[in-house]
Amino acid sequence: MPLTDIKIKRAGAKEKAYKLSDGKGLYLEVRPNGSKYWRYKYRFVGKEKLLALGVYPETSLAEARGKHLRARKLLENGIDPSQDKKKKKVLAKENAENTFEVIAREWYENRKSRWRKRYAEEIITRLEKDIFPEIGNFPILEIEPPLLLQVIRKIENRGAHELAKRQLQKCGEIFRYAIATGKAQRDPSQDIKEALKPVKKEHFAALDVGELPEFIAALERNDARLYQSTRNALKLIMLTFVRTNELINARWEEIDFDKKEWVIRRR
Fold first, then answer.
1. For the domain 98-202, what is the CATH superfamily, name and number?
2. pLDDT digits over 33-78, tens only?
3. DSSP conformation letters of 140-177
4. Which of 79, 126, 141, 217 could form a cystine bridge with 74, CB 3.0-4.6 A?
């Protein structure tokens, strides 16, 4: 006869372990110390096997029957329930270990030799400040578009729209690296591009001379959380008054350190 909760509760300890059958291979094993374990005995490719389904009362009779039913369905499809359970444990462990930060740092180590040292430092620093505190501990498989959008919008809300766009691009590279290495299945960054606020191209307001000290102090504190190379470029522009494109396209051969001259060549 099938088991009942009353029968299970009344099952007391004996000198030796014994079994209470629920049918179709499912039974409750009662140990001499009174512990009660759910077990499913089955045969797979001619061999008798045993699957642990939990401990009573943490696993109730209804829950044990549900697990038993799922195991039987696996058998019907030619899958060994014990091997399936082990496989899922391994995958769960791998997913827990493959957090966004772990994968991002792996991606970074793989890429940094291709970048200039300063640029590489800026990349990892920006991730450490803006991204890792938000989703670094999340298994990369569990990061969905709404969660990533929430992270990027925090950057936007600081007024750093261009930085938000760049950080989304870097996250996309990390997700695609994870896909290539078999640690993720999709890139959620592709789904949220249209949700970002458009950056309006417009002229920036000019600084009054009296505002320069406050601007320089804010630049030193890095209130806008700019890359170090951007801050250095701003300081150089204030010292030389060159055009932005002249600074961006400057070449080392234009600079004579002995004469302390920078001769800008037209392109």
1. Tyrosine recombinase, N-terminal domain (1.10.150.130)
2. 999 999 999 999 999 999 999 999 999 999 999 999 999 999 999 9
3. GGG--HHHHHHHHHHHHTTT-HHHHHHHHHHHHHHHHH
4. 79
Write down the residue that tokens 């920006």 correspond to: 126
Residue 180 DSSP SS3: helix
What is the pTM assigned to this prediction? 0.52
Multiple choice CATH, 5-82, 3.30.70.2740, 2.130.10.10, 1.10.10.60, 3.30.160.390: 3.30.160.390
Q: Are 134 and 155 in contact (CB under 8 A)?
A: no
pLDDT digits (tens, 9 = 90+) for 158-194: 888 889 999 999 999 999 999 999 888 899 999 998 8
CA 113, CA 101: separation in Å to the nearest integer?
Answer: 19
pLDDT in tens, 246-266: 888 888 888 888 888 888 876
Q: Hunting for tokens 């002249």 — which residue is that?
A: 246
| Residue 59 · residue 53 · CB < 8 Å | yes
64-99 burial string, b = 16+ CB within 10 Å, else e? bbebbeebeebbeeeebbbebbeeeeeeeeeeeebb
Residue 1 structure tokens:
């006869």
User: What residue spans define the domains of the chain?
Assistant: 5-82, 98-202, 204-267
pLDDT in the model for residue 227: 79
